[in-house]
Specification:
heterodimer, A: 3-methyladenine DNA Glycosylase II, Chain A, domain 3, four-stranded parallel beta sheet, three-stranded parallel beta sheet, elongated, B: alpha+beta, five-stranded antiparallel beta sheet, 5 helices, 5 strands
Amino acid sequence: MDQFYHAVLLDRDKCMGCTTCLKRCPTEAIRIRQGKAKINKEFCISCGECIRVCPHHAKISDHDRIDVIKDYEYTVALPAPSLYMQFNGLEDQSLVLKALLELGFNDVYEVSAGAELVSEMSRDYIAEHKDQIEGPFINTACPSVVRLIRIRFPDLLPNILPLKPPVEVAAEMALEQAVKKTGLPREKIGIIFITPCPSKVAYARAPLGVEKSEIDNCIAIKDVYPLLLHHMKKLAGSEDADKLMSGKIGISWGARGGEATGLLTYHNYLAADGIENVIGVLEDLEDRKFRDLDFVELNACNGGCVGGVLTVENAYIAETRLKRLRKYLPVSKQRIEEGQKEMIPLERDIEFQPVYNLGTDIKESFIRLNQLERIEKSLPGLDCGTCGAPTCRALARDIVLGEASENHCIYYLKEKLRKVSDDIDGLDLSINCSQEGSLQKVRDFLGKIKEDIASLDDGKDEYEG
Amino acid sequence: MGENIEFKYTVENGEFQRAGEASSDVKQKLKAMGVDPSIVRKVAIAMYEGEVNMVIHANGGEITVTVDPDKIKMVLDDVGPGIPDVEKAMEPGFSTADDNVRSLGFGAGMGLPNMKKNSDNINIDTTPGKGTKITMEVDLKEA
């Protein structure tokens, strides 16, 4: 799979070409071309902000439909911890697990169980390696954050805690169990994650730090929610908490700060949520502005995973429910067993992708930066987005890279129109009807104006794609 | 190879919340050039410390950053009180910051030492009562 795969799609019929997503994309990955929002896949980190803000619901997540479970002989559901927090009044998440079986899954493996293994491994890893890096470790649970670091914060790549995200650990454990239990070949077993966000969909299809993910499909919390609700009503009262595979630490990963508190012994941590806040923290980390931090937990969504765009409940209400669910749970139900330790670390380093570089080498980049600065100064600086780029600087960059022209700027066009009008005034003065050849002069002039006006519209269609 | 690129910034007096705006802007620009991350970091830290100093001590001032193909030059110019004892100010931990400044997380006495550590060349031209002009250079090597 393309390492720049992104899990956000556009419904072209619904897209009005407005500037809402353009302005809110944290990596400036969107341009409006030919009246439609176009994503630059190299910049997109699948955070889902555009899906969240699109007033026309034209941005959609590329997750799988629920009937994908029919493609396999045996399926295991991997519920994200945030799934439990969608239900009002839920006291015991085993009801959710039972409802998943009613829905047609053959087995369930809680992602929160994988999370507890990662928590334990993180404690050990940080203790052993803390002195070997400059600055704190950064978590890998949010794939959008990892993608952001690899395109924008290369200096922080060594700080990434090189452990798999809980969903991957859960997928591998679930698969191992399923093979053991059924004896079926790999392709007949479906490991299906119930995801709060498109970011995890992008991870499953094009993982970073892992050769291939064992997650076969991702279905959205919002799609299973009404179906689960139906079964949960019927099953109410038949909970069996003994079946749970995880405790407080595991399910707490579903909301902000959960991963960090699961470290137990490390109190010098920072937990930031919301993509703009995450970027702010990464900028400061890069400048070494924070001293004495051991761990940094970053989540692209407000509130953590409960704030994912594929959830149904308000993130903060979900957080309150987490507190209630946690109340009677043991601290943790998982311990790393023999042979599991080797499975948790990432399989390879995450490499820097210099997609923001202006040129292929420093010389070319230097020349282009020079051009960019000049062009930016000539633009009005309103950052209106009408040109199809989020800011004047972004348009200047596009122009330097040959992806747009100055004519995209409506203020630039206005200026050009004014010049045409001035030319007409000039013609008025220079014509004397009695003079020989005046008619020809008028004809030539009209021809020139026609060309000028036509040129105003250039670039509107040539930079499609 | 084209002319040098110059960026100018005005640092406002007492605006702690804005200290770092100029260095952050330079950082983004150097990144777009594909400058090696370790060099970007040196420039960002050296300039940030200088910027904070201007806010705290010097009633603000002007910063001019020049990028040429070989190096990045930062000139921080102020009309503040000057540095009475440059040698002492260079000692790690030496600080004249008051509690108000320290409560904001500044004033650890690492400003000038950090500027020296993160630049390949530093020159401090200061006259008590007149002002200070600090010139720092960071070499640009192809990564």
